[in-house]
Every structure is written in C-alpha cells, then in structure tokens.
C-alpha cells in the first residue's frame, strides 16, 4: 500500500475489519486489532471511521458484498443449464456452506442484524438474493423454502465447524426443487 494513498489505506482497514469479524466475531473487533491487521497506525482507524460501530458496519458491508458475489456465481451456474437447475443448486449451496469464511460471515451478519436494524438490510442480502435467483427456476414459495433451509444449513455448519453433508442438504431441499416445466 502506498504510504500516502488514503483510499488504499481505508480499503486495507475495511478489509482487516472484515477478516477480523470472521476470525474473532463482530463483538471482539477493536481499533487496535484492525490497525495491527491492516498494518497502519492506530490513529488511522479513527481518522477514517468516526466510531468502532462505523468501522464494524463497513467490515460487515464488505462481507455482504462477498456474499452477493457468491449469489452472482449461483445465478450464473443456474443460467448456464436451466435443465440441470436442481443439481446445480445443490452443488452451489453445498459449495457455499463448505467455505468457512462464507458461513461465518453470513452468521456474523445475521447475528448483528438481529440487534442492529442498520445491518439488517445487509444480512437480508443473502436470503432475499437467493429467493430472487431461485424464483425463475422453482417458483417463489419453493425459493423461500430453500432460502430458509439454506439459512439453517449455514447456521448448522457454523456451529459444527464443518460443512453440511451434500446428501443431507439435497434431501432437505429436494421437496422444493421442481423443474420449471413441472410447475
């Protein structure tokens, strides 16, 4: 990072906050931890962010953006071969819950949103986005059901510290996956 590049410094601070939220949780985030991780002077964290809450919110926003990137990948997968939407959906969801960072970021957003309405919109990005992605393939009510199961699978993976078994995930969502022509 260039020494006098404010945008790069700010981006490094936000990235450090996001990484630390995933590693230690949003409640344990401190200016000192972020500064150390970002390799910036401690005063930089307060120069760019008026409060720790603002810094935490920016870190959570970055994590939400990463989740949106995952949704884009799922959308692309489903669009590639709509006839294989069911298999692709199971594969995509299993891949998502198999990445610890995805799982922890999602749960951190959800937990924070439970008590902070400003973060709620960020947390809903996964669920609402997944419903939006799935609706053209399996219908709105089935998409909502799959999104709820996905939320549960994410929490399950976070608590257990390991991915949900692909076969178990497939079994849970199978009743809600109907090919477009059979709706």
From TrEMBL:
* Keywords (A to Z) from UniProt: DNA-binding
On the tree of life, the source organism's domain of life is Bacteria
Where does the HTH tetR-type domain lie? 7-67
Entry annotated with the keyword Coiled coil: no
Residues of the DNA-binding region: 30-49
Q: Which GO terms describe its molecular function?
A: DNA binding
Query: PROSITE patterns attached here?
Result: HTH_TETR_2
What protein name does the entry list? DNA-binding transcriptional regulator YbjK
């Amino acid at each position: 990072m260039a020494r006098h590049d404010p945008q790069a410094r700010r981006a490094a601070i936000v990235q450090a906050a996001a990484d630390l939220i995933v590693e230690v949780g949003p409640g344990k985030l401190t200016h000192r931890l972020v500064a150390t991780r970002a390799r910036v002077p401690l005063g930089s964290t307060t120069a760019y962010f008026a409060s720790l809450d603002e810094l935490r919110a920016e870190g959570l926003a970055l994590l939400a953006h990463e989740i949106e990137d995952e949704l884009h990948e799922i959308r692309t997968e489903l669009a590639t071969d709509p006839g294989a939407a069911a298999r692709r959906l199971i594969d995509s969801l299993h891949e998502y819950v198999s990445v610890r960072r995805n799982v922890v970021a999602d749960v951190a957003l959800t937990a924070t949103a439970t008590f902070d309405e400003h973060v709620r919109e960020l947390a809903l990005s996964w669920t609402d986005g997944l419903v939006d992605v799935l609706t053209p393939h399996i219908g709105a009510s089935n998409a909502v059901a799959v999104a709820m199961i996905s939320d549960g699978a994410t929490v399950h993976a976070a608590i257990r510290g390991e991915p949900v078994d692909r076969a178990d995930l497939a079994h849970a969502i199978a009743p809600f996956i109907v090919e477009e022509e059979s709706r």
